[in-house]
Amino acid sequence: MFSGLLRCADCGGNLNFHFNQGNHDIKYFNCANYNSRRQCVSTHYVRVDFLEQVVLGEIRRLTQFASRYENDFVKAAIGQSQQNIEAEREAMRRVLKDLQKRDAELDNLLVRIYEDNAIWKITDERFSKMSTKYEAEQAEKIDGVHVQKLKIHYNCVGSIKIPNVLPLPQPEVLIQTRKGVALSYSQSQQVVNL
Q: Domain limits at 175?
């Protein structure tokens, strides 16, 4: 259902459909640029069953917003001017460029400390601390939890931000994927927690 529609938040590349080789019931999307050419900083892995539940919940919420608060919906839909969209794209391009630059710097730093460790310029303990710090910075984690942003663009409308102050049901999605790992969705922050 989502094939050809999903884009990577970092590089803008397609998210390609896959299924787990060991369990064909587990279907997912991940960034094509990360998988094949390593040009992207993250896999941006998202399970299909999770994505279906999140999108369905958001569609229900949007339809309730449109039917209960028609004037606010029209303002929100019209308010998405091309200038705002282009300004957002440009801001995201700058953020992506900065993140890619920092990622390249971190790769260079990791190579340098590895080389310094190999010729005994730094101790093994120092190497371990520094490499752990740099690798942690590259991992996109918040409080030990992987966080991915999910933004839904509707046909002919684009992305609509529904005010959180309105009394609309919040989609709650929680999927236990394996022991100790769960996927959850928080609409108010519009992020996917892994």
A: 15-193
